[in-house]
Amino acid sequence: MAEAGEEEAYSYKGMSADNIKGLVLALSSSFFIGASFIVKKKGLKKAGASGIRAGVGGYSYLYEPLWWVGMITMIVGEIANFAAYAFAPAILVTPLGALSIIISAVLAHIILREKLHIFGILGCVLCVVGSTTIVLHAPQEREIQSVLEVWDLATEPAFLFYAALVITAVFVLIIHFIPQYGQTHIMVYIGVCSLVGSLSVMSVKALGIALKLTLSGMNQLIYPQSWAFTIVVITCVITQMNYLNKFGKGKGLLKPRSFFFTSKVQRSAIAGNLIENIEALDTFNTAVVSPIYYVMFTSLTILASVIMFKDWDRQNPTQIVTEMCGFVTILSGTFLLHKTKDLSDGLSTSMSMRLSKQIEEDGFGQEGVPLRRQESGRLT
């Protein structure tokens, strides 16, 4: 009994080789995706200088090589994200998507010359601390030898009940709420994308495991279950592409801002989902939508993974609580990053308006020349 207790305690220490591979792939994905939005923004600016901006319906960016470099960079990041799910549990990979926001923040500050407020720096630190907490306490990846094992997990009553609830909720949102509230309430679209995203991540993970085993010599493509998971992935991705791209099209949903952090809304955190709303990227900053979407998508994905892969069955309560604390820390950092940028934009706009008003009242130009005196001189 004592030896069994020691072995169980030891199983919670350190990271497995698969978890390390998944961690490296997830971090690489965040770097490539975070950098891709900055590169594409540079491409959009360059294309807009010589043609019609994407924000007003132009397509000149398609002829800009820099924009395509950013697009290829994002594809590489999504492929790395896809592979990460094959090696590590979703509870480890999905929250790390927030690190792409830090990459965007730092690069926007350096390359795009967009100011990073002191509270924005604090937000970055919180994201790093939360991510580190989750990494150190993440569960070990379940050892799976066949896609049939994944299928058995997906067809257990608990996950079938969850999937049925998700599908029912999505249909209710699409049929009843979107026609009435889709143009005025962004939560409708976020709900659809988050619910569908939780199922898509589970299917992506199943497909990734099948491809990993196939490349290792155990062909899983001969099983119809592999193709069933593929169909689910395609269906979920198409659904998310449709409704994610409507985030920036509702009336009054988003405020016009300069680009800063749009990655979590413009792309789903699942691998292979290459989603980008060019008009929103060129015109809007999703300062409030991004944290809401992040928490809903990540929370539902973690819930789906816990139900299907039983991640928490291999952990003690202390580890579970610590992981949740890490997730809340990342959420706090993400929200602080977005709200800080929104606050900075608001303050700069307010200051410029006050300054212009004061100039008009005092009658002084930008270089201290009394405008009213000049005008009176001209009249005389």
Would you give an account of this structure?
With 380 residues, the chain is mainly alpha-helical. Helices cover 72% and strands 0% of the residues. It has 15 helices and no strands. Helix 9 packs antiparallel against helix 10 (224-244). The radius of gyration is 24 Å and the shape is globular. The model is unreliable at 1-12, 248-286, 347-352 and 355-380 (pLDDT under 50).
In short:
This protein has 380 residues and is mainly alpha-helical.
Could you name the key traits of this structure?
single chain; mainly alpha; globular; disordered N terminus
Tell me, briefly, the overall form. Answer: globular
Fraction of residues in β-strands: under 5%
Radius of gyration: 24 Å
Q: Residue ranges: pLDDT <50 for 5 or more in a row? A: 1-12, 248-286, 347-352, 355-380
